[in-house]
Amino acid sequence: MLFIGLALLIAVGIALMISADAGSLIGLTQTQTAQLVPLVIILIIFAGGLFSRRRQAGELIGALVMWIGIFAVIAIGYAYRDDFMRVASRVSGELRPGVAIVDDESGSAIFRRGLGGHFEVKAQINGHDVPMIFDTGASAVVLTHGDAMAAGIDVDNLRFSVPVSTANGTGMAARTRIASIEVGGIVRQNITAFITERGALETSLLGMTFLETLSRYTVTQNALELHN
Hints:
Layout: H1 2-19, H2 30-35, H3 37-48, H4 57-79, H5 81-95, E1 101-103, E2 108-112, E3 120-125, E4 128-134, E5 141-143, H6 145-150, E6 162-166, E7 169-183, E8 186-196, E9 204-206, H7 208-211, E10 216-219, E11 223-227
């Protein structure tokens, strides 16, 4: 009888919370509060086991407090799930440089500075994964010979007649256009790029022909933020 009375009391309380939109006090909408009802019912069923046999009052109170605590943690976690996801993304970005922290609402992608001091960017060229380095000093997107081949670019029919300066010295590159490039969810088509000769460049560069298509990009001490 005690359990039935407690269950009825909780059910009435939930109904009043939904009708009064009390969930807004902890960041929940009226709909979200209603969605918690099945969870509460499950908790009531489990808690029913506490009252299926005689227990000491102290044990009952302790178990009841535990279940209330579990429900509170779940409710708070649900209410702040977006904040927790942003924190998880931030931690992931710190542990995996080059992987974008994407904010769909603002249309931005954030990259963390790598251990080498560069902003490493994992891009997709024509659907192929290409590791790149953010470089405002590069007048265009520059691909290594190997990355260009992997991305399906016909390097055999390119004319390597443009002199370029790289970390390995002066080399020759060919001008071409990339059908598609995607960086942190930001997609551009028909982008001008240079393809370097074999061995002239170690890592592809994310240069200005992509960056100038963005609404803006910002660089801080440890973060690169690209805005679509």
